[in-house]
């Protein structure tokens, strides 16, 4: 579904990603793990069209989308749930969700998708008319996942959804992701939380200084001495 | 001084206030799109008033009939101006944007001076010099109709911005443009349309109040200053705040000039501005 090859990307003249190869098949839940500053966010933003890569290819369902902008990515069926959540603070939960489905591709299905999201996160239904800024971090995380789903994505990308959440809320968030994946949604998940993300995913990639250094089945990666040494050392 | 005279001045002040509020709201809309403080705001309205004059002189078109035409003409002007002028200049910073609009003040005023001359002019309309008399009040029809239309237009603008997909997209871009991009919103296009609506509203406002005013090429500045004051007093981005601030400024200006003469009356809005800023730096109904 998503096929990235030789991707070079960064900010201005500074390259952060140095030739990334990464693949996500339909129906998979793939984890991208790496320490802070490894380049996960840069990669997610480049896929979502917020950053124009300087070299390489991003093919989504066979068509090239690299450097075509965020609108093109949404139109193709990619939704990014960004790091730091980025809610629209002075708008209500309902307004935030409506904006998630404002693209012409998603607009006709908004009411039905809204029902599904309220089923998945009943808390959002309760807080429907509350301003996003007044909600807790966990609720905001549910909101931005819901907002991403409103776009009717074929591929949902999440950048550090567990950041700053209590363990209980992390469990809840990951439970929702597992459920969405079981219902057929393809998911790419960037995380520093190696243990957790490798536990829910089918396959994983380890990124280090803008390069993929390891890849394989998540269960193998979790057992791999190299991963353990670098990322799970404290566990 | 009789109660009737005071009542008369209060009503007139409220009517002016509605018009001030509408001008301030279009200024807020333009400001919310990319942060341009439009010092040429009143001059666009002056341009529209002269446009109404030209349409009357050339085609005997009444200003009220010309209003939709001026709206679309100015919408187009605003849309293109945003794409070709404002956006590239804003990329260089907000100060460059302010400089651009200051430049537009001179361009427009001199353009009007060249084409229409410096004399005071007026535009005859179906309502000109007619009054509605409801004792003890005597209300000029142009001001009455202008203020009612201003309230209606402000309400429409409110609904468009707060209750439609388009309005939500405009607000989303203001609140977090990166997140807005992630929603697949075409930021440039939405901004250009919003800017066009802001300028288009000035075309419309000029047409519906032209019968109340005497035209002179430099008349725009007064409106710009009043709009700035109303926008700041009301609290940036607050509709209710702008309406209330418009009423306060309109009434105080009108009562002030009645009681203390025109010079003092014209200073009162500034005094109120200073007081409000001292006690409520974010305006009467401002957020943050
Ligand atoms: N806007 C930016 N401009 C310049 N450098 C940046 C910017 N954002 C991130 N970086 C740099 O890019 C590198 C990778 O950052 P990032 O992609 O955010 O990593 P991660 O998401 O894995 O923590 C870091 O060295 C960081 O300092
Ligand atoms: Mg990151």
Report on this model:
The complex is a heterodimer of chains A (235) and B (288). Chain A has 235 residues and is α/β, with parallel strands linked by helices. Chain A has a single domain (26-50, 69-232), classed as Rossmann fold, CATH 3.40.50. Helices cover 38% and strands 26% of the residues of chain A. In chain A, strands 6-7-8-3-9-10 form a six-stranded mixed beta sheet, sandwiched between helices. In chain A, strands 2-1-4-5 form a four-stranded antiparallel beta sheet, with helices on one face. Chain B is mainly alpha-helical and 288 residues long. Chain B has a domain at 21-219. In chain B, helix 2 (41-59) runs antiparallel to helix 3 (63-90), helix 2 (41-59) packs across helix 8 (187-209) and helix 2 (41-59) packs across helix 9. At the A-B interface, helix 2 and helix 3 of A face helix 6 and helix 7 of B. The complex binds adenosine-5'-diphosphate and magnesium ion. Magnesium ion binds next to helix 1 of chain A.
Q: Could you tell me the CATH topology label of chain A.
A: Rossmann fold
Poorly predicted runs of 5 or more residues of chain B: none
Broad structural category of chain A? alpha/beta
Q: Give a quick account of the main beta sheet of chain A: strands, pairing sense, barrel closure.
A: 6 strands, mixed
Number of strands of chain B: 2
Helix content of chain A: 25-40%
Q: How many DSSP H or I helices of chain A?
A: 10
Lateral strand order in the biggest sheet of chain A: 6-7-8-3-9-10
What's the SSE pattern of chain B? HHHHEEHHHHHHH
Q: Into which percentage range does the β-strand content of chain A fall?
A: 25-35%
Distance between the termini of chain B: 43 Å
CATH-defined superfamily of chain A: P-loop containing nucleotide triphosphate hydrolases
What ions, cofactors and ligands are bound?
adenosine-5'-diphosphate, magnesium ion
Helix content of chain B: over 70%
Number of helices of chain B: 11
Strand order of the largest sheet of chain B: 1-2
Largest sheet of chain B: 2 strands, antiparallel
Estimate the global geometry of chain B from the Cα principal axes: globular
Mean pLDDT of chain A: 94
